[in-house]
Amino acid sequence: METSTPRRAPAADAAAASSYVSMSPSPSHTPRSSTKAKRTLNNGAAIVASSPSPSPSLAKGGGGGGGVNIQVLLRCRPLNKEELSINTPVVITCNEQRREVSAAQNIANKQIDRTFVFDKVFGPKSKQQDVFNHAVVPLVGEVLDGYNCTIFAYGQTGTGKTYTMEGGGGKTQNGELPSDAGVIPRAVKRIFDILEAQSAEYSMKVSFLELYNEELTDLLAPEESKFSDDKSKKPMALMEDGKGGVFVRGLEEEVVSSASEIYKILERGSGKRKTAETFLNKQSSRSHSIFSITIHIKECTPEGEEMIKCGKLNLVDLAGSENISRSGARDGRAREAGEINKSLLTLGRVINTLVEHSGHIPYRDSKLTRLLRDSLGGKTKTCIIATIAPSVHCLDETLSTLDYAHRAKNIKNKPEVNQKMMKSALIKDLYFEMDRLKQELYAAREKNGIYIPGEQYLADEAEKKAMSEKLDRLELGLESKDKQLDELQGLYDSQKVLSADLSDKLQTLQKRMQETECALAVLEEKYMQANNTIKEKEYLIENLLKTEKVLVDEAHTLRTELENTTDDLSGLFSKLERKGKIEDANKNIVGHFHSQLTQDMNILHRNISTSVSQQESQLKVLEEEMQSFITSKGKLLEDFKIK
Ligand SMILES: Nc1ncnc2c1ncn2[C@@H]1O[C@H](COP(=O)(O)OP(=O)(O)OP(=O)(O)O)[C@@H](O)[C@H]1O
């Protein structure tokens, strides 16, 4: 029966029965002691064989070809109170639209701006909800689809890694998370919301690991253990799983069935993290932490076969990348900073080697890189949230974070979905494990009286006690689950009645809906007709308006032309008037000229006739004189001849 109440699938019981946690993508379960480790390797063979090797047919998300670049997001925190009080200059500008971050640098009195582009940029005003929506929501979906996903926060101390990952934690008000809740509580809530909306049958377990001074500790281990192996104090071993992965021996995985349970676990674990006051952060996390959520979801194949899908979300809060003197780390703190830097330096070297493809990748040089191996260049889907501060005092560290994160953008992973496991095979394994435990119990009883070293006896006793307590807890859990099942059955029956009632109502509503749909269709037809008429009218109006515009333009042209013609005509008339006047004046002049000419001509005529008569008389005189001259000359000539 499928219900919305979280139910534990057998896989969860198997997981709960073991206490080794693999950091490898495979959902393998390993027991607490070395004997148990051996057992699980045998017993877990069915699971391990089917789970770690990802099925190429099931793989999605671009595992093929060159892989998928890991996502790198950048978040810049706002100035804090101290920085504001001393008016610290801001040297970082974020352009969220263009996904750019610019750092203003002053080198030798020259202003040099460096700009970096990321997959997403969150400025100082960004909300926790924004970061969650862009960084985590898609990955939560991938986890529920059976992928392993890792989100890790990287940045200088005091830049908001813990704020981004945990924020105000999971203190809910009226079932809602506070606005400052970070990525982890929001991811938890979303996972439960989705699973419950899908009425999925699932089981979930969480682990919380701390890496401090290259030593691993379990943040979920009980504070005081009656038994010899007090894990809260004792560092834990990181072991190779023989398949290229690693697991942390003895890491507690708590089975959870509600978001509030996880919030409590988170609060408990976070409280145990090593923190200290530094110049840059009053409550600086001095360790790296990895909070992991493993989800097993039941699915049915079309053939009715029950399968278990497994996905894992690793949420990593790294310790601050820092300069020892600037961070104010002293004495023990300096060693601490050195160790933190060792892990982060190795992380940097791993990133560089991955990006430059320059041979051997030094994963093994630090525990952090061994743990994150599958998230960097492996089969996991990874997202890095790099955090920076905007103040000028942090510029060097900010640039180093920006360079680091920008380089990490080029890392390619080949995400592959975890192969689904058959539920029947899991149950078989579980029964096998129970039988084995029973046999061990009988054998242990029968061994009464045989000598074994006291230390081993105590250890075995402690383990037996822990196991029987666990068994009791499991039985109790089973009983309560049975009760829950009964309750749910009752609920189911009442729901059935309710559903019959509702289906009647649904039918009535469907009828009404059909009628409404008919009316709607008629209305839609009318609406379409009206729309067409409106369109036609609009077309006509548009054309009319166009014609009117043309006419108005033409009228304007005509009017200007008319005005020009009127001007021309009045010019012409004034010209004609002037011409008439000139003609009249010319007439007068001509008349005057004519009479003057006549007078002058008469005078000339008279003068000429006078002159002619004078000339005639003068000619006569001249003739006479000439005659007399000739006669005189002739006389003279004759005289001369005679002489
Ligand atoms: N985006 C933000 N908005 C508001 N306050 C922030 C933001 N980021 C960080 N802070 C505040 O700045 C302080 C330091 O943040 P936080 O402890 O998360 O830094 P951190 O990077 O985890 O430092 P460390 O590496 O030392 O642990 C906290 O008081 C936190 O509330």
What does this structure look like?
Helices cover 53% and strands 17% of the residues. With 643 residues, it is an alpha+beta fold. It has a domain at 10-425: Kinesin motor domain (Kinesin), CATH 3.40.850.10. The strands form five sheets. Strands 4, 8, 9, 10, 11, 14, 17, 18, 19 and 21 form a ten-stranded mixed sheet that branches. A four-stranded antiparallel sheet has the order 2-1-13-12. It has a three-stranded antiparallel sheet with strand order 5-6-7, covered by helices on one side. α5 crosses α7 (183-197) and α7 (183-197) runs antiparallel to α8 (259-272). The longest helix has 189 residues, at 454-642. It is elongated, with a radius of gyration of 53 Å. Mean pLDDT is 79; it is low at 1-64, 225-232 and 323-336. Adenosine-5'-triphosphate is lined by residues 77-78, 80, 155, 157-163, 281, 283-285, 319-320, 387. One of its GO terms (molecular function) is microtubule binding.
